[in-house]
Amino acid sequence: MSIKKESNKTYSVRLTYSDMAGKRHSKKKKGFTSITLARQWERKALNEIDILKNEQPKQAQPKMLLSDVYEMWLATYKPKVADTTLKKTDSFMRIHVLTDEWFKDSTVDEITPTVLQRFVNKLSSVMHNYKKNLMPFKQTMSQCVVMGLIDETPFNRIIMPQPKPSPVFTDRLEFYTKSQLNQFMSTAQRLYGSNDDVKYRIYVLFRLLAFTGMRRGELLALKWSDINYNDHTISVNKNLVVDNGLVNRIHPPKTLAGKREVRVDNNTLAVLRHWQAIQARLTLSEGLSSTNIVITNASLDNYQPVGKLRPWLIRVAEQAGLPRIKVHGFRHTYATLAIQAGMNVKQLQYQLGHDDVQTTLSVYSGLTETDKAQTADIYTRLVDF
């Protein structure tokens, strides 16, 4: 208690407190003839201490460059993602954030809401998916708060503007219908499937993309030892990642569920057998050692370069008179047609290697025009009154 009754029947008051720097101070007074007077002085002294504390300058927060904090954040993010994801994340920061125009030489405390608002306003006018791409910038600023470099992230005090509209391409599709896929595969077979030479691998590649739902990297990483003709399965246990378009790296599958046994139909297995025989004959005739790679390059001595796939796809689509799709669009195609054929969602989730069934439901099961037209009839067949 700060008030004390002395032996001479007077009262004394002693107060102790710490300033903003943590230094201890004391304030005391004696000789009060009543406890009421002592309490009055105590209240006054406490008010003065509070005022003094508020007037003391706060200890200056340390200053750090945004680029330095970002490097610290990137080091913790790197082990969690594949090289391709890391490269995309870092490219966004280098190209759009850590630039001479914006925040290359900025300390984190200089990134005010006003400056940040101008930045996102400009970014939204040139990038339709800018909100998603801002993730590394936002997390870096949040780390600044945790580190005590700033009191609050400026992202909490800005308005995210409407992004630039997504581009609409009339000559492109997300996936093919059954008839379009048939047309595409027939054209691919005509262009690449009839010759008993190394070009046959191009037809095999499209056949596997369309009839297994595998990711591009999973397919290109396949070895012949992954093919089980007896069980009608392909073991997916690795993923081919290309660094800067030049260096091939073998990584684990993209997700935990990516390691799986994909079921394969008889016709696709027959196509694989034929290519295996062609590849073995050509490898022997060239005096090469077998690489055990299913989809090799034209020289049969390494993995197939990723950059060739899209030009091949475009050529086949043009020859077939079809709109373009992305290489990844064959996964969309597989999922959409699998749902139409009656495959249940859990089966499809496993076949595609998705960790979360919501990914399967929300991303890969599109509706064709035929599906839309049959919606009312499906319901009426059950509720027929």
Q: Looking at the structure, what is the overall shape? A: elongated
Element-level helix/strand string: EEEHHHHHHHHHEEEEEHHHHHH
State the end-to-end distance: 84 Å
Order of neighbouring strands in the sheet with most strands: 1-2-3
Which blocks of ≥5 consecutive residues have pLDDT under 50?
none
Helix content, binned percent: 40-55%
**Looking at this structure, what is the CATH superfamily of the largest domain?**
Intergrase catalytic core
Number of helices: 15
- Taken together, the total number of domains comes to 3
How would you characterize the largest beta sheet? 3 strands, antiparallel
CATH topology of the largest domain: hpI Integrase, Chain A
CATH class designation of the largest domain = Mainly Alpha
Mean pLDDT: 84
Count of individual beta strands: 8
Secondary structural class: mainly alpha
